[in-house]
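Recall from the previous lesson that a structure prediction takes nothing but the amino acid sequence as input. Here we apply that procedure to Carbohydrate ABC transporter permease from Cohnella soli. The sequence below is the only information supplied.
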Amino acid sequence: MKHATSENVYQMLAFIVIVTLSVLSLFPLLYVVSMSLVHEQEWIAKNGFILWPDQPSLIAYKRLFAGEVIMRALGISVLRTLIGTLTVLAMTTITAYAVSREGLPGKRLLLFAVLATILFNSGLIPTYLVVRDLHLIDSFWAMIVPGLIDSWSVLVLKQFFENVPREIEESARVDGAGEGKIMLGIMLPMAAPALAAIGMFTAVGHWNAWFDALIYLNDATMQPLQLILRNMFVNPQLGFEFNPALVTNSTHRVSAESLKMAVAVIGTLPILCIYPFLQKYFTKGMYMGAVKG
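The prediction returns the following tokens.
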């Protein structure tokens, strides 16, 4: 009886903690979405703190999509995420498969180079000089090439490839399969969960990145969405053709805070929509390469 009471108390405390953490996690999201759905009149009436708008309005989104800045930045972010994720997966997979092969000439040296990039960072100035000397300044590829290979993911995939039973590989070689066919036809399908997890982390990283664009891109027309959001927090009207203050009707005017929150929602929504479909691969994909057997 005493054990049952202790278990009930534990379950109740665990439930309270989980609910509290869930509410604390959802509160910022609810605040951002609500702030993006109010016009200036309601924003002023409630002193800028709104958890749920009385009269939800899409005026902030209409203002943003009325110009070219957000649509162009959104397109650049989508393109960067797609190309960046695919290239990182391709280069990381090729590197991981190469260093997992027995008898590869210079294997230890290559592994040392991979580990060195994890342990040591060259710093901002040397990296900028390399990007400049590669003539990538003001180029779309400045956001792709510096992070072309994820060293940590190389180690994860390498361990996974080494854990694949050698009998499968030897059977494929007996059937006349070469290295390319073994990698594409056997290794990659078996590594799909790990690739999905790595791809998701890479996509989130590219989607949320803005600092590299700030450093390498001087052309405002090439800025991704997250850099636009950062610039809006520095200067709410930076890069926008319209001026909401020119709209005389208060129900058709929007505050600078609502504009910021609307951009934040636009920048967050795509990842929130994709994440649930790949979440099931995370645990399996990130740990299967680290377990022998």
